[in-house]
UniProtKB/TrEMBL annotation:
<dbReference type="GO" id="GO:0019752">
    <property type="term" value="P:carboxylic acid metabolic process"/>
</dbReference>
<dbReference type="Pfam" id="PF00282">
    <property type="entry name" value="Pyridoxal_deC"/>
</dbReference>
<protein>
    <submittedName>
        <fullName>Pyridoxal-dependent decarboxylase</fullName>
        <ecNumber>4.1.1.28</ecNumber>
    </submittedName>
</protein>
<dbReference type="InterPro" id="IPR015421">
    <property type="entry name" value="PyrdxlP-dep_Trfase_major"/>
</dbReference>
<dbReference type="GO" id="GO:0030170">
    <property type="term" value="F:pyridoxal phosphate binding"/>
</dbReference>
<dbReference type="InterPro" id="IPR015424">
    <property type="entry name" value="PyrdxlP-dep_Trfase"/>
</dbReference>
<keyword id="KW-0663">Pyridoxal phosphate</keyword>
<comment type="similarity">
    <text>Belongs to the group II decarboxylase family.</text>
</comment>
<feature type="modified residue" description="N6-(pyridoxal phosphate)lysine">
    <location>
        <position position="293"/>
    </location>
</feature>
<dbReference type="InterPro" id="IPR002129">
    <property type="entry name" value="PyrdxlP-dep_de-COase"/>
</dbReference>
<keyword id="KW-0456">Lyase</keyword>
<dbReference type="InterPro" id="IPR010977">
    <property type="entry name" value="Aromatic_deC"/>
</dbReference>
<dbReference type="GO" id="GO:0004058">
    <property type="term" value="F:aromatic-L-amino-acid decarboxylase activity"/>
</dbReference>
<keyword id="KW-0210">Decarboxylase</keyword>
Length: 483
């Protein structure tokens, strides 16, 4: 008879078997999950089990049918979107946390690393003494930052919006290139998605400061409260970096919260050749970064930074709960001396964001930085930025390739062109689909200045120069065939 208790002590053996299956997966020689020869759907789609089959049988199926038909995201040639497969150390740290500390709370080594890793990133990315809190991704990280901005703006006029709600219309100023999570955050926070005012960009995808000032002045004339300005330190579309110093100065002039969305691009500050583009970051009231993007963490790790987490506490604190409030030692108690990890919850991250239950994310970031250090991460940023720049140099020798926007970071937007082809958008759409179905080099597409562009984004730790060279050779080959 198979029971859960009967499996105690087998973790080493079982993880060894799973590890072997994952190693095979990471050879990346397998066919895509949707290849016509695959039949895993019929193997996995079974009736609800009334009797368990045991852990060994389930693990076999997990390796042979689930892992073997996993995502193309970890492949070295995958350059779509801004996501990647976790590095090996990130996978190990995530696994360790899931077993040894299912929650990030209480006085454990994991709780300590939650804070230490946040401090390390603040130092690494020139955020000074800003304090952070982890969340599941850029969506929640931006939500937390906008919650702080809302709290700050209304407290200035004598209102606690977290307790009593929003009492007047507000505006959030973000460029037309900002991530759509800003609109969603405005909706969730009760401000309304239409509170986000789209500010035009220049031909490089950077916010136009003159248009920002015009929008602020118009709102002030109509008694609309300017709540926040959102600037990009690396847009999702093209990697553009807004003029942070100029925008930050305007935010200070008008007394508006200044938020910098660096979910993707903030690690680019480590590349000293372009670090000057991040000047003005020191003016920010909040900053976000997603370690599960360029740093290579397992998906589900983002961080929001502010200057004082007490503002986050006022914005997101929970009401008291009987089952929690009396559990830990209370300050001033005669016996208030910590002798057990359950005597204290540790830093109350649950009051600084929207999650109560949350995994230990800091150990993942700590492990990644500890493994290769700032020097190793800087080398990765430089390598990826160089790969995007290589496309520009490569295209100079091929009239079939047109650069639509030169890279700022590790994204390059280009397309295949041919005389006599009237619909270049359709040509490049077909080229892209053929690229993806070959299952070797997989960029995404976007629109730049109204034109469809191929958009490789290099953020994966496994990306090397041969991937970009192979991609360009494949684009030329497929393009010539389609023409």
């Amino acid at each position: 008879m198979h029971t859960e208790l009967a499996e105690t002590g087998k973790l080493q053996e079982l993880l060894g078997r799973l590890g072997a299956g994952l190693d095979t997966f990471q050879e990346f020689t397998h066919l895509d999950a949707q290849h016509p020869s695959k039949d895993w759907q019929s193997q996995l789609t079974t009736a609800l089990p009334q009797q368990g089959e045991g852990i060994d049988s389930v693990l076999d199926t997990l390796i042979q049918q689930v892992v073997a038909n996993g995502s193309p995201v970890p492949k070295p040639g995958f350059t779509s979107y801004i996501t990647t497969g976790a590095t090996t150390i990130a996978t190990l740290a995530t696994t360790a946390a899931s077993v040894a500390s299912p929650q990030r709370y209480m006085l454990t080594a994991f709780n300590l690393l939650e804070e230490l890793s946040l401090q390390w990133m603040a130092e690494m990315f020139s955020l000074g003494a800003m304090q952070g809190v982890y969340s599941s991704g850029g969506s929640v990280a931006n939500l937390v930052a906008m919650g702080a901005a809302r709290q700050s703006a209304f407290e200035r006029i004598g209102i606690d919006p977290a307790a009593n709600g929003v009492t007047r219309p507000v505006s959030i100023y973000a460029s037309t290139e900002c991530h759509h999570t800003i609109q969603r955050a405005a909706g969730v926070l009760g401000l309304g998605r239409r509170a986000v005012k789209a500010i035009a960009c220049d031909d490089q995808g950077r916010m136009l400061v003159s248009e920002l000032v015009r929008a602020i002045e118009a709102d002030l004339a109509n008694d609309i409260l300017p709540m926040a300005i959102v600037a990009n330190a690396g847009t999702t579309n093209t990697g553009a970096i807004d003029p942070l110093a100029k925008i930050g100065a305007i935010a200070k002039q008008y007394g508006i919260w200044f938020h910098v969305d660096g979910a993707y691009g903030l690690p680019g500050i480590l590349d000293e050749r372009i670090s000057h583009l991040f000047a003005g970051l020191e003016l920010a009231d909040s900053v976000i970064v997603d370690p599960h993007k360029w740093l290579g963490a397992s998906v589900g790790v983002a961080a929001t930074y502010v200057h004082d987490r007490e503002l986050l506490r006022r914005a997101f604190t929970q009401e008291p709960a009987d089952y929690l409030e009396g559990t830990a030692l209370q300050e001033g108690e005669p016996s208030a001396r910590v002798e057990h990890s359950l005597d204290d919850f540790g830093i109350p991250y649950f009051d600084y964001g929207v999650e109560l239950s949350a995994p230990c994310r800091g150990v993942v970031v700590w492990a990644m930085i500890r493994e290769i250090g700032v020097t190793g991460l800087r080398q990765r940023m430089r390598r990826h930025n160089d790969m995007a720049a290589f496309i520009v140099t490569f295209a100079e020798d091929y009239p079939q390739l047109e650069i639509l926007l030169a890279p700022t970071l590790s994204i390059c937007c280009f397309r295949y062109v041919s005389e006599g082809v009237a619909d270049l958008d359709r040509l490049n759409q077909r080229l892209h689909r053929q690229l993806v179905r070959e299952n070797q080099y997989m960029p995404s597409t976007t629109r730049v200045k109204g034109q469809l562009a191929l958009r490789p984004c290099f953020v994966g730790a496994r990306h090397e120069q041969d991937q970009v060279e192979g991609l360009m050779a494949a684009v030329l080959r497929i393009g010539a065939t389609l023409v």
